[in-house]
Amino acid sequence: MDWQAIALTARLAAIVSAILLIISLPFAHWLTFSRRRWTFLIESFVSLPLVLPPTVLGFYLLMSMGSRSPLGRWWMEWTGHPLAFTFEGLVIASAVYSLPFAVQPIATAFALVDPSLREASATLGASGLRTFARVTFPLSIEGVIAGLVLSFAHTVGEFGIVLMVGGNLPGITRTVSISIYDRVQALEYGQANQTALVLLAFSMLVLMTVYGLRRRPWAAAPVT
Amino acid sequence: MRWFVLLVAMLAMLAAESGYGRVSAQARRALTVAAASDLQAALPEVIAKFERESNATVTVSFGSSGNFFAQIQNGAPYDVYLSADIDYPKQLIATGHADASSLYQYARGRLVLWTRKDSGVDISGGLRSLTDARVMRIAIANPRYAPYGRAAEAALRYEKIYDAVRGKLVLGENISQTAQLVDSGNASVGIIALSVAVGPALRARGTYSEIPAMAHPPIDQAAVIVSASARKPLAREFLAYLKRPDISEDLHRFGFTAGR
Fold first, then answer.
1. Where are chain A's structural domains?
2. Would you say residue A220 has pLDDT above 90?
3. Residues A62-105: pLDDT tens digits?
4. Chain mean pLDDT for chain B
5. Residue B259 lies in a domain
6. CB pairs under 8 A between A and B
7. Were B185 and a residue from A68, A117, A187, B137 both cysteine, which residue would form a disulfide, CB within 3.0 to 4.6 Å?
């Protein structure tokens, strides 16, 4: 059992889902309530990782992290080491890759909140932020949790991108999926199987959580 | 319904266009080859010649030797397996997945240090240049399962710099990916196959410095015919073709030394 890889993956997924939560709340709010016509363009762009093969993202990330790209050079000057093959590099790559999994459920939940409740809150003199904190957010909590859980799970399940930009460094970029691949490559099927079983159990747990959420145990106030 | 008919008609046209219908007539003369990724540059030319001479169609899949090894053990439909080492083919023979009589060492691989011309790293000093502080990341193939990775690690140990550079090593999944980590500017130097360094993709963009053959155990590369193959006569023809002096010469030109 590769505990080091499991711990690394858990840390990566926790950081990525925390970052994505912070980004997604205002972003999903803007996407849902903005009246601008071109929001669909931004929405499409953010959702690209849903349809693009990870190899496409991995390829672009590899190119943009290398010393031949401005981003890669800037990072190199700033930190003194290349961005690829580092934990930070994986965090950035995973955040891009899992962004739609956080934004979409949250945006959907925001859209489902009865507009009259927000209007009532505004009429009673609450600021936009207060309305968000006291009305929109509490009523969307299941969507927020689903977004958190899905982005965590999606980061755990990431493989193609890590294979392309990770460099397979134990304790830094060797995630669970890479560790399993490694073990299979080295024909150590028994050990691959042990780690794979942990991942299987974890994935089942995640899906049970997400589908369990559909029963709306948090929806305390009757909305309609 | 109209749409369905249209769709079927379009698919039929596509199939006819791509020659799908003709394949069955030629099935007898088709061959599927699984080849180690260090052959990516050399093999297409060698195979094109074989196709012309023997009126056959050869489909090649490039990948890591270890991957193909596991796939063939699990019944992958390849006829010929060109590994980047000789142990995988021997193991396949031992487990009855490949024909013992077909084992042929078609080449010996060579290891080089490779860097992009614009990387600003001087590799003329050979492996010792890896200890230079400007070399931040060194890409090698994964020694756990890639033959060139094992050779690279052995060479680093032979030069007694393995412990000094250990923290800089990043691992590629196969030798092509290892080269690509350097070519994209993410690693400063790579230890790759000469056959990849002199291939059309990298030749113009980088420089290499050969690692002496005595620094690592020889990278003997062998071919075998897969036992489950239904096209053994053509597979044997292909191996006989690989043994021809002019073909060895072609492989030589692409960075391999002679078979034995």
1. 3-34+42-213
2. no
3. 888 887 889 888 988 888 888 888 999 999 999 999 999 999 99
4. 88
5. no
6. 67
7. A68
A3-34+42-213 fold = MetI-like fold (1.10.3720)
For B247, phi then psi, to 5°, come to -75, -40
Instruction: Compute the distance between CA of residue B80 and CA of residue B225 in angstroms, rounded to an integer.
Output: 5
| Residues B224, B95 share a domain | yes
- Asked if residues B84 and B221 have their Cβ atoms less than 8 Å apart, the reply is yes
- Average pLDDT score over chain A: 89
Determine the angle formed by the axes of helices A141-156 and A87-112, rounding to 10 degrees: 150
Q: Is there a single domain that holds both residue B161 and residue B224?
A: no
Domain boundary among B210, B226, B245: B210
Residue B144 and residue A185: Cβ atoms within 8 Å?
A: yes
Q: Which residues of B touch A170 (CB under 8 A)?
A: none
- CA–CA distance, A219 with A112 (Å, rounded to integer): 12
Look at residue A24 and tell me whether its pLDDT is greater than 90.
yes
Residue B212 has what DSSP assignment? P
> Across residues B15-34, what is the average pLDDT?
61
Q: Total domain count for chain B? A: 2
- CATH number of residue B159's parent domain: 3.40.190.10
Is the pLDDT at B38 greater than 60? The verdict is yes
Q: Which residue of A has its CA nearest to B135?
A: A81
